[in-house]
Amino acid sequence: MLFRLVWMLALAGISSCSSLAHEKVNVCTLPPLVAAAGSGFEAWYYDSNVGKCSKFFSRRPKSELELNRFDNETQCNLKCRPNVPTLCFEKPANGGYQGSKLMWTYNSSVSQCVQFLWSAGDTEGKNVVSFKTRLPKKVDEIT
């Protein structure tokens, strides 16, 4: 009888550990594996403290599914900021000219709206608007 009880508890423990091993971990919340100063591979990670992807030097040469390490900023944004439309990550193309019309754009690097001088004409389908109130104040407000 005691043997059966011990056996059942052992099986329950193994089953419990086995299911934990299959749970998915949100890599975006993990700390990056930072290389020692002066070494490593340039990479990107999601910094959950500031809510954006940042560059760092990784101990690993390539992206791995279970790590908060990405080969480029686009990969990081797609994985860790899926609710932010890709339009918000686009830098407004100003035709290489200094503009004369004061406009607003959402700057994903600082997670807020910023003003700049626009000269490229039509703003349709671009990360550019004439009034700040038409852009989200924070990433959380983007739907």
Automatic annotation (TrEMBL):
State the protein's name.
Answer: Putative salivary kunitz domain protein
The record's PROSITE patterns line, in alphabetical order, gives:
BPTI_KUNITZ_2, PROKAR_LIPOPROTEIN
Query: Per the record, GO CC terms?
Result: extracellular space
List localization entries: Secreted
* Keyword Translocase in annotation: no
Q: Which organism is it from?
A: Ixodes ricinus
Chief location of this protein? secreted
SUPFAM superfamilies cross-referenced by the UniProt entry = BPTI-like (SSF57362)
